[in-house]
Amino acid sequence: KQEVTQIPAALSVPEGENLVLNCSFTDSAIYNLQWFRQDPGKGLTSLLLIQSSQREQTSGRLNASLDKSSGRSTLYIAASQPGDSATYLCAVVTSGTYKYIFGTGTRLKVLA
Amino acid sequence: NAGVTQTPKFRILKIGQSMTLQCAQDMNHNYMYWYRQDPGMGLKLIYYSVGAGITDKGEVPNGYNVSRSTTEDFPLRLELAAPSQTSVYFCASSWGPDRAEQYFGPGTRLTVT
Question: Could you point out which of A12, A76, A95, B55 has its C-alpha 20 to 30 Å from the C-alpha of B71?
Answer without folding.
Answer: A95
